[in-house]
Amino acid sequence: MSGSCEVRPLRYADTLEEAARRVLPEEVHRYVATGAGRSISTGEATGAWDAIRFVPRVLRDVTRVELRTTLLGTEVRSPFGIAPTTLQRAAHPGGEAEMAAGVADAGGLLVVSSNSGTPFEALSETGAAWWLQMYVTADRPSTAPVVERAVAAGARALVLTADTPVVAAKELGERTVWDAVEPGWLRANFPEPDPGSDPSRLEKARDLGPQDITWLVDTFGLPVVVKGVLHPADARRCVDAGAAAVWVSNHGGRQLDQVVSSAEALGEVSAEVGDEVEVYVDGGVRRGVHALAAAALGARAVFLGRPALYALAADGRTGVARLLGDLAGELEEALRLSGHVAPEGVGRDLLHGRGPGLDRL
């Protein structure tokens, strides 16, 4: 032995934030990277997944592993999707269309922010499957134009963000970011407001309720996913109101600080409604083993926020496709090593009885 050790290159995913930092305006990177308050929840997200431990099974045939699945009827190559993020045109001139192209290359699913800086019609031209993330406004009819445009452009589902009656203050990164935003980076799909109209009617609804889920389903004819659910009782209310899926998320730690991690909340939510609707999760997922843990806790898909935005900034569509492909490869390996051949076949018996939230299951 020579005494030298092999230096393994960094995982692509681990290089992305630093690569994006060199591209993004400083204010934009700070705004994206930090969370609300003291960023406690943001800082804990990945560690909560890392704390989960597995009890793998052996003597099983894992020759053929299948990652393909469907999300509300849309076929995808793996259970990794792209969560909605704003300011994508700050990351890449092509913005959401470039992100969509990378998602299409990877055979994935994109959730597009209603604040998109790219016309919805350009997304469908990429061939990507996409859903619209949306808020309900205080004046309910004012919600309609953006949703109607998305539906006409090919959106396959609506993702109602439910955890934002107000936008939480960010102690870092918010005070100057909007000075750095270029015209056209946001709200490309919103109609011009009527002169003299009351701007408060366009604010996010503070009286959001289960009835709004029913209204969206009945009005627009698309399945509705409710994003931002952490409590199992709220998941139950969503399903009873007609939601087709529930998305466990703490908004990347960007709303109420010091909330539980998605990893901690997922198991109880899926135990409550997972036999009736699809359950998704985001927040701190950075590795294939994190997706394995999410599957064991009942998630049908995991969604990537910051990593996807960083990949877009670093390498455009190529970076987005590579990120999705690399994580799918890691998940395939993790499945084989745990004794499973598909995420849907992973159960809670894979999980050791210690870790965030596992004591309550």
SSE order and pairing:
Elements: H1 12-21, H2 26-33, H3 40-50, E1 69-71, E2 74-76, E3 80-82, H4 88-91, H5 95-106, E4 109-112, H6 120-124, E5 129-134, H7 144-153, E6 158-161, H8 177-180, H9 210-220, E7 224-229, H10 232-240, E8 245-248, H11 262-273, E9 278-282, H12 288-296, E10 301-304, H13 306-338
Parallel strand pairs: 3-10, 4-5, 5-6, 6-7, 7-8, 8-9, 9-10
Antiparallel strand pairs: 1-2
Summarize the structure.
This protein has helices at residues 12-21, 26-33, 40-50, 88-91, 95-106, 120-124, 144-153, 177-180, 210-220, 232-240, 262-273, 288-296, 306-338, and strands at 69-71, 74-76, 80-82, 109-112, 129-134, 158-161, 224-229, 245-248, 278-282, 301-304. The protein is an alpha/beta fold and 361 residues long.
CATH class: Alpha Beta
Total domains, how many? 1
| CATH architecture assignment name | Alpha-Beta Barrel
Instruction: Characterize the main sheet.
Output: 8 strands, parallel
List the uncertain runs.
none
Strand order within the widest beta sheet? 3-10-9-8-7-6-5-4
Number of strands: 10
Shape: globular
Radius of gyration: 20 Å
